[in-house]
Write a structure and sequence with these properties.
alpha/beta; about 35% helix; six-stranded mixed β-sheet
């Protein structure tokens, strides 16, 4: 892969330039250009299959891009550049980058044989080699922050879906990431459990955490996002402030999508 070098501007946490991704003959991302600033909350909206989750997975190199580049806090993700060519990093180097990029998945992905506390401390101790006592103390504080101080010794099977997702958020926070990616974090939850997870995300947004959120929760996006991006068919068709994109969309595909979800 060839690419021209480009230095990101100060204050930019994530920068995607010309990102393309195909699965076989299906082109899923068709040249994504996007910038997320430090402390910004960006929500990605769009129909299923529009490329939102694939793009999110490309940011931390869970999916390899076919063309373009992605930088997080100025560092090229997944590749090293030499003489205008990009060479994919070794898995250990990629894992080092992922330490700084939290990821909250749709289906929690907790370790079933570990308690809530053990799930939260596993990364800082096992990956970052931090002091166990310090990590445990921090983990208790994070679990309290997400409303689970009484569930530290509970296993995932003993927790509701909403509680499991809050453990997953606590696990991401324990790594002290620069950026957290949320991939439809409420879509697998029963409706009555959604609000608790969204409340935790609101708290994170208010604390200044940089967040990219793939979601169908349009109300959350309208209330919390600094910027809303609407994707369709692997492209960004509209972006701007929530009041503009959600309140007064200019693109026909955005209007059609919102007419179905805003009932």
């Amino acid at each position: 892969m060839t690419v021209q070098a480009e230095d990101p501007a100060p204050g930019i946490m994530m920068q995607a330039a010309g990102v393309r991704k195909s699965f076989g003959t299906l082109e899923v991302l068709k040249g994504i250009d996007l910038v997320v600033r430090q402390g910004e909350v960006m929500c990605l909206l769009g129909q299923s299959g529009s490329g939102k989750s694939t793009f999110l997975r490309c940011i931390n190199h869970l999916e390899r891009i076919d063309y373009g580049r992605i930088r997080v806090d100025g560092e090229l993700i997944g590749y090293k550049e030499r003489g205008g060519y990009l060479r994919e990093m070794h898995e250990q180097e990629i894992a080092r980058q992922r330490v700084h990029i939290g990821m909250v998945f749709q289906h929690f992905n907790l370790f079933p044989h570990m308690t809530a506390l053990q799930n939260v401390i596993e990364g800082p101790i096992g990956v970052k080699r931090e002091n166990r006592d310090e990590v445990v103390e921090r983990a208790h504080g994070i679990l309290k922050r997400v409303g689970l101080s009484e569930k530290v010794n509970a296993y995932p099977r003993q927790l509701s879906g909403g509680q499991q997702q809050r453990v997953a958020i606590a696990r991401a926070l324990a790594m002290r990431p620069k950026l957290i990616l949320f991939d439809e974090p409420t879509s697998a939850l029963d409706p009555e459990l959604v609000s608790d997870v969204l409340d935790v995300m609101r708290d994170l947004a208010e604390s200044g955490m940089t967040m990219i959120v793939v979601t169908h929760e349009v109300g959350f996006a309208r209330e919390v996002a600094d910027r809303v991006v609407f994707m369709a068919d692997g492209e960004i068709v509209e972006q701007g402030k929530p009041a503009d994109v959600i309140g007064n969309p200019s693109h026909p595909q955005t209007r059609a999508f919102l007419s179905k979800v805003l009932v």
